Amino acid sequence: MKRCMGALCAALIFLTSLIPAASALTVEQALGLLEANYVEELPPGAYEAEDLESLIRALGDPYTEYMTREGYAAFLDSVENTVELVGIGVSIRFTPDGIYVESVLKGGGALDAGLRPGDVIIAVEGVSCVPADQSHRALIAGEEGTFVELTVRRDGETLSFTAERRKVVIPNTEVSVVDGHIGLVDCDSFGSATGELFARGVEENRDAVDSWLVDLRGNVGGVTTSAVEAVGVFGGPGIPLYLQARSGMLYYYQYVLPAATDHPVVVMTDGWTASAAEAFAADIRDLGLGITVGRRTYGKGVAQTVYDENNYPLYFDGDALKLTAYRFYSTGGITNDRIGVIPTLLVEENQTEAVAKALCGASGAEEGDLLRIRLPETAELAVDLRTMEPNALAALLAALPPQAELEVWGGVFTPAEVANWLGMAYWDRWCSDLRDSPFADRINALATYGIVSGDEEGRFRPDDRLTRGEVCAMLCQALNLPLKDENRFSDVAEDDPYAPYINAVARMGLMKGDGQGRFAPDEWVTQEQCCVILSRLARYLSLRVDGIAREMTGQWLELAERQGFASWACGDAALMSRLGFECFATDELEPQTRITRGEFAAGLYEVLACTGILPVGRGY
């Protein structure tokens, strides 16, 4: 069934791959495709390339690549990530006591024979498997249609089973019910059938659950339409994804069917959650369908078009060119490119699942045992203090920003106070020297989400002035920018500790030199310069903010000019004031005054909150 629409000619892929190139495509043909379709202007080095390898390297884009016939086939397999094998249909672990059965797969002979998770296989065809190791795998494997006798220990009993070896398909997405009331969607990638797997799994289990837990940890992306369909399963009709080409042209994908469930969603993420998986997590956030728990995602917010013999038969014969053609935006008009999706609760990987499950519902708990958490622009959360593991509770408390309101035992408390009442350790991410700062809550919120950090002693030094180099370092941490660019400026030494940050920020276009190849890294940043930097960032992150900037009238520019802003800063200063940022009320700014660390961090908070990047943001 066709579930989505899009005005695109070639298949869009959100997945990265690293496959060595050996070309049949010519450099001239590749240049033609890049000139017509690449998301950014081609650098001069691209026109100097003598072979495909040099051409791709000149782009500096890890997602654009030429793939041989063999490499392209492997790439398509990696997108699908669905495994087909012959066996009895069990997931196993080798232990000193035998072969432990972790799960029994649908359609396998083990399920029909009666095996259960938790069984321990101690012998295969009479051959002992105690202790078990990899050598015993061959005893279970065999040809399709043959049978194998298994001796199993279950609850102290020794039982015998005969299981048929069959072809078993392990899909990239599985849906099950865990802990009696949580619908778990374990999605490893977005293959061509993943949207249908989401829909079928949710529909089959929706009456048995009261919340959904979607595990996207390690999911590096896949097919665009499948991510759109998966969002639609929870969100219903709408436009979950926008794509913007270099020309500025916007395309979209639309979902038209009703939602399959109205239960809340918790999404688990990590640093390898990328691309289409990030788009899914961002849409759950934007649509108010639930929250995300875990680590900040990878930050791949661009989509690739694949050109092969299906759309360019004269250029390709089994090989393909995958090139970055679009930057994508969530349903709220926000890109996760570079910055990633910042989870509602930033917790360590080893506590992600425990915290996520605790937030999937606290049914049956007495009011006195409930810890209620309210975050601005986020649905109320609740956990049962009786059943939540202490380490998971500590991780949850540490993940709460100052804007969170905690209600328990008939009162409202801070995370530290709750931890103290419970007599448990508490790791405070907030900075230690902000007691008297008017920007304390905003800076501490950024610290909670790993956007900024204090020094070794936890101090932020909010009253210190900022150099241009220091601003670059703060932006790189905030945006999670890769530090791999070549030096662009004559006055930035190769061994300057700020050089990698300066070049990364310059590549993104947030800060520029003087036009003569100099950056002036040690100069102090002024308020009008800060307006320009953060205005560019806001426009980069948000389609809506960029649209507001394009439609602003002359009266706003005149206001900025009357306040003494330089001509090159008037538009950006007016935009910041137009957006209603507390830190950038134009009539209160002194354009040439040097900005402090606290002021810059507060302005950064305003931008991330306004655009909807921060989970405690108000959106725009």
Folded structure, characterized:
The longest helix has 15 residues, at 527-541. It is built from 19 helices and 25 strands. Helix 6 (194-205) runs parallel beside helix 7. Strands 1, 2, 3, 15, 16, 19 and 20 form a 7-stranded antiparallel beta sheet that branches. Strands 5, 6, 7, 8, 9 and 10 form a 6-stranded antiparallel beta sheet that branches. A hairpin with a 2-residue loop joins strand 24 (405-408) and strand 25 (411-413). Mean pLDDT is 88; it is low at 1-23. With 620 residues, the protein is α+β, with helices and mostly antiparallel strands. Helix content is 31%, strand content 21%.
Question: Any key phrases for this structure?
Answer:
disordered N terminus; 19 helices; single chain; alpha+beta; about 625 residues; seven-stranded antiparallel β-sheet
